[in-house]
Amino acid sequence: MKKPLIMLLAFTALFSCKENETQEQPKREEEQAIAPVSNDALESAVIYEANIRQYSPEGTFDAFTEDIPQLKELGVKVIWLMPIYPISMKNRKATGDLSVEDIEDPEERKKYLGSYYAISDYTDVNPEFGNFEDFEELVETAHENGMYVILDWVANHTGWDHKWIEEKPEYYHKNDKGEVTDPINPATGESWGWTDVAHLNFENEELHEAMGEEMKFWVEKYNVDGFRADVAGEVPTEFWESIVPQLKEIKPVFMLAESEDKDLFENAFDMGYNWEGHHIMNEMAQGKKTAKDWDAYMQKIDTTYQDDDYLMNFVTNHDENSWNGTVKERMGDASETMMALTYTLPGMPLIYSGQEYDMDKRLLFFEKDTIPKEKGKVWPLLEKLGELKNENKALHGGKEAASYENIETSEEEKVLAFKREKDGAELIYIANMSDESTNFSIKIEGNFEDYLSGEMIEISEDKNMDLKPWQFFILINK
Fold first, then answer.
1. Which residues are CB-contacts of 23 (< 8 A; sequence separation ≥ 6)?
2. By residue range, what is the domain housing residue 305?
3. pLDDT tens column, 306-335
4. Where do the Glycosyl hydrolase family 13 catalytic domain residues begin and end (predicted)?
């Protein structure tokens, strides 16, 4: 009797294995729905910063996932999710200098949802957004639509509810009394004001390994395609240079640093923030700097960075919008001119949630708010710019970026003009970076198509051009 029983068990086990293989097949197909991250794919990419809490009235993964196919219309190839993890309750910021503990009314206290960057668990999802199944569907939908998904990673600090506070206090900076501290400004010895988070101390080697395991969790289990590193320069470069190769052993990943530090690009990050360029754009829009200042900046970064370093260009992001003002507040009538500039520069342009819908309000940071969802002037412009970025090699902006060459004009203070070129594709950006009409000559010759209007424009060195305030052209060769 034993032999037939053994054969039956063996057959049952074999059938079970085959059934499991069949059940797992959809996962393998999903993983192949998009080619692995590569430099070629990133050359023509637009990145979208998704604020899940504020993206929809529901503030959920599912509500955002529904709109992912629409992002293809804007040329988006990378989705950066702001932190999706549970948020600490202890020391949670409320309003002004108050924390939730200072609010006595329990109903009033409920409306303060805290900072996304005060994380209580790196390997869980914020229940306000949904569950892991909802998150998996988001990633799968993005991949099916040709988009990579990167997570916002906060290695510099945790929330005060994180289990490491009790279990691994040696992971944190402490004061003279042995108390864990929030991040301290080393120049002044005073708090930065981030009182809702506890400062991690990377002098502890065990922390390096523990943090690395938390990052690998998302790549191995949920197939994410990389990370945006919050305050990347405040975390030792050695940590990033150690963990990134480990992540790439699992699969190719894309790494974005919230920093301009060129040393971070050596062995860790693919792209950094163009903070300095962004601030110059604001100042040009406000009449505090000129097109000539921009030319000087481009010459500076040409000598600062290696040829394969590149930066993210933006007119807004979550910090700028909530703390420094909307695009219209900061850039006024120059808004579209600067937005077009972010697409035509070397690097990768960013769209922040709501920007595509002409959002002209500062989103609340610690409370529920919602972006507008009505298409106005910005959506069709972003659609056109995204198509150009995706398809024209003259706008390649990654490790093998198209060339950038300044074009001389007779009004160097007011007129910004440059040419991008790669593999026979050429593009010229000309803009009046002032609030006055400008007549000028420019050192180029030929017939060009104005990409946005479709009209042909003839330009010659002996014939002056006129531009209205903040008027710009994107000229392409046909």
1. none
2. 27-403
3. 999 999 999 999 999 999 999 999 999 999
4. 9-389
